[in-house]
Structure prediction request, 251 residues.
Amino acid sequence: MANWAFEIDIADNFIVGLTETLTDKGFRIWCFYNDGQPLYVFSSAYLASTADSQVYEQARYLVKFIDGVSYLLFENKDKVNKISFTSVIDVNTFRMVNVERSVKAHVDIDFSAYRSPIEEDEHPAAHLLKLVPGDVFIKELLLALSEGMDVKSLRKAYDHVLAFLMEKGDELILSGFSEATLARFTQAMDAHQRRIRHEEIQDMMSLKDAQELVAELVMVVLARYYRINLKPFIIKDGNAQQDDWYDSLYD
Prediction:
């Protein structure tokens, strides 16, 4: 099998920063130079035994977990650039190659192929990704968030966290949020499902407020149960605007 790497389409400052954060072989962002030009790429030990015909779709699936972390870190969710690929590179030869680019609805990754050791004082984002292979809650949570923290993925992530807390018998975390705020969130979710327009409900929770609620809830759970504190690493956006999450639903 070839040792694959996948060139990242948009290498913004956040992606460049991940070259120092995601250095583990499981989820790695790194850079090499081709004719003097930097190429930022993704590679993964979880692709070591993947057939050539499936490697592209499985790589696309794996970077969803990085996208899920990104949506937690960015204060303004509209500023998140989901990772997409351009070229596929054979790291053994550092040549660009053609592979099948079909993307299937279901991807089965063999996470047993590699186990990432948890390092002391490592970046919490790197720590969080290392939990994906062995923790179903983290795995499904990041996949839900990776969908973009729109109304559908927010509800999915919220319900996923509630199910986790119910299983733990933990109501203390929810008690840290006012009943009125949680009720507004649920009302907004239900309104979306019934396709009720924003203006028909008084004091409808905005998309930005709903995103902040879910992100805060997730971070409290991560801190309490996994000792992962992402808050110091939040990427602030001073120009973030209040978005109406119903703007595009009824075009």
User: Anything to note?
Assistant: The two ends are 48 Å apart (CA to CA). Helices lie at 13-21, 55-73, 124-130, 136-146, 151-168, 172-175, 179-193, 207-226. The first strand starts at residue 4 and ends at 8. Residues 58 and 107 are 6 Å apart (CA to CA).
